[in-house]
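Quick one - first record:
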Amino acid sequence: MVEDIIIRDKKDLEQKKQKIAEGGRDKLHVVSDFDRTLTKAYVDGKKIPSLISILRDENYLTADYPGKAHALFNRYHPIEIDPEISMSEKKKMMHEWWTCHFRLLIESGLNKKDIEQAIRSTNIQLREGADDFLKFLNRKNIPLVILSSNGLGGDSIRMYLKNHDLLFGNIHVISNSFKWDKDGRAIGIEEPIIHSLNKSEASVKNYPVFKMLEDRKNVILLGDGVGDTQMVQGFRAGNVIKIGFLNYDIEENLNRFKEAFDVVLPGDQSFDFVNGLLGGIA
């Protein structure tokens, strides 16, 4: 039976906690994914992959958009999770997938109003305790970098948090960005495109937040995929505690997660462990 909380090396974790605590909150920042990390993986027993799935499955765009989006998923997702395919080939195909999907969104008439409507869906929810997590970081003035390959881009994340009165000044979103015309219609996508496997290559140093974090070398990292552990590579990190939310196919993925993360939280867990950890070191 899988434990509720799996710690790869308890002694190592305690040492990291002590060093981060000694550095104080002025030397700490948090890097997190968004979909299925800050948000629940399941709502009312239904699998909710991401904000983009809300747009796809609740019929906001043209009638043929959902079918075409599912076809792209069925083509590229098996490549994304196939352990026999090289990482270089996977990255190439993920870039192709994201590019095709962004083009499809634009051709299907994506408008900012569609995103504003989608983020209000009851099918996308923060994990229990995630609001306390966000409020704690804001109160303690600890920067939070949300590094996401979100298919609806950074605007959707900011809109969602703002709609829940959680878009605080310490939050910095690095994600894909659409180009909009004066009527709010999507007409293009900014480069570079961030997909699920190139977060380590995202040009973090080109964002203003990079300079702000130069002296905050201690990091708490949160993600729901092994690839998310690479998010910290863009920063000059010191002591890093990596926490992984293992939402799906737990038995099949457990060993990979244990190798990649310091702490693994199997199942669609709350933020209780994360909040307890932060409370003890910041």
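second record:
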Amino acid sequence: MRSSGAIRTAAVVALCGAVTMSLTSCGGSGHKGAAGSDRRTDDAPPQPTAWKRVPDIGDRMWQRIPGDSRQVVAVYGAGPDSPNSTVELFVKQGSTWKRDRSWAAHNGRKGWTADHHEGDKRSPIGVFTLSDAGGVLDDPGAKLPYTKSASFQAPHYWNKAYWHDFDYVIAIDYNRVKGTSPNDPTRPEGQSKGGSIWLHMDHGSGTSACVSLPKSAMQYLLRTLDPRQHPVVVMGDTQDLKA
């Protein structure tokens, strides 16, 4: 566990993809259903199905997934301007990929973008590694390096529904330094490109730019994602992912 003294407490204002976040920054329209009516959205293991590659990911995105990755978190957005999505975990077994779990989730309240900027309230489309985790709560048994710190705590002047958003987080390696706490505010590409894009706990509506999931999903991912398996997230609206 990293020392919390190495964490900049002021970084909480940069959470969820914004240098400063208003009370409603992680708010949005209510959940209207996740992408893909045939997708499972619960914690039960799916029926065994094997694919040569993760389904509904086109050549453009698939070529960006590292060859040594054996865990893929796929975020299938319901539409380019929708805050609703489905998150699915796929694991590679031998030469095939199998769906391990699926959950209803949320993304940026205004949808998706291929050119994310600070404050646009859209989640970045792309393939990103997953290297670091943390949160307010004790380490639940994470395989990724986990930083527990009260500095993750959402300010209590936010809507009460958002107070537990950062109890568990997994950093998406967009405009950040790998190997640091998720709330390290360093932005290698500059502040204008945003940052602190995380998987974090869901409050029932769209986010500033992060992807949010139920608590049980976050616990499962933290206990399952293994740096030795080179986990990545591939994320975007469903049609863009298929392109």
